[in-house]
Predict the structure of GNAT family N-acetyltransferase.
Amino acid sequence: MSDTAGASAEKPRLIVRNARIRDIAAIRALVAKVYAPSGMSSYSPAMLRGQINNFPEGQFVAEYDGAIVGYCATFLIDGQNALKPHTWREISGGGYASRHDPDGDYLYGMEVCVDPDHRGSRIGQRLYDERKKLARSWGAKGIVFGGRLPTLARRARRFDSPDAYIEEVRQNRQRDPVLSFQMRNGFEILGLLPDYLPEDKDSLGYGVHLLWRNPNAPDEREEKRAKRYGGRLPDTVRVATVQYMQRRVRSFEEFLDLVRYFVDVTADYRADFVVFPELFSLQLLSMEDEQLSPAESIEALTKYSTPLKEALRDMAVRYNINIIGGSHPTRMPNGRVENICYVCLRGGEIHEQAKIHPTPNEVYWWNIEGGHALNAINTDCGPIGVLICYDSEFPELGRHLADQGANIVFVPFCTDERQSYLRVRYCCQARAVENQCYVVMSGNVGNLPNVHNMDIQYAQSCILTPCDFPFARDGVAADTTPNVETVAFADLRLEALRAARNGGTVQNLKDRRHDLYTTVWREKG
């Protein structure tokens, strides 16, 4: 199936986008709802209009199923003003962002708020991430703002001073629901801002002066900002591969609990992607008391296709992570059985990628047939591709994804012994070299004695890179111990791929002889 055909149009989606003038009424309602318990007022329509008009690139909303559930306001300002003591009204031009300076060297965060009914979906984290992307795209030195202390009024009597409370939080001896979150996001405390927002009674009027330093800021202040926010991709993408243990489960819910554990863990490590192995859902067959025939196995599994897909989608949204859902035998509307990978993005979209080349065992045991389409999937971290196990052993498929712009190829695999594994491993390394892309492998370990074609497993999951100076020495960004359940992480730099493709020691994509050969992809219905 194509990625567009697999997208779930009718399901609610959570997206972050630039705010528009027509959002003003909804933003006002959101801010009023968030701050009503503290007695703080909302923005006027004129203030919001000023924020959007003064710096349209810097205002964001989080939208869930058409409703505004988060708002983030920023503007640019020079460091001399941003880093010295100030009040919110002074720095923000009375809430209008009228002090926005297009040549300012710091991004100032004047607002982040999230609908209390939607907390738990990491909306605040998404808005913070958008701010950081914006700062990078403008070449800003960093992000500055005054953070709230909404529990200070209740806790003040337990500390000698607000400064003492801040120091306890800084030393991780006290947890503050807002400040601790900001520190986890890389912000450092510059000090307290007295009378920052006098109407904020919960914070006793104080703000915490916070700074995030942009690690990619230009060295020279005079450098012109040629790039603008909008289409820029993150500089670094964090990926996680799960080496997954096959074991007996008693219910579908128990299986989902195991999957949810790994999604939660990798999300806590701020991974952008997590990938599970091919056919990892076959452990559902272990719920049966007796060994099923191949035909019975397929029928038992296909009833889980829809609930599995929906569960993975919900996890992706809730945990703010893109999930490459291994693969699952799925009966298609035309009656065919295909080995499908569900790619569930954190915005709520679902894409499906079929295995193009089923192995002889898949054909023999389960009558699985190959899919007919291989499409790059657009994500918030750029285009990606999926090659399910045996597909990675066909160079034409990797090149087809590279031609569509894929920077990262995910390979869920399932192999029974070391030689089978090494065929996949060596081919994945070749795909990384010849297409100058990253390849992420995820395999099963453990045994399922009563399941045909899943008796034993061998895997050493890994994250592979091209072989050139900007990358890991052996072309391996991360590796795992063979045959144990574990997770491996790696930070992948997309800019390193661009540099290698255009100026590397070898330039495989660029140096292809199109005058001698080409690959023709025949689209089939």
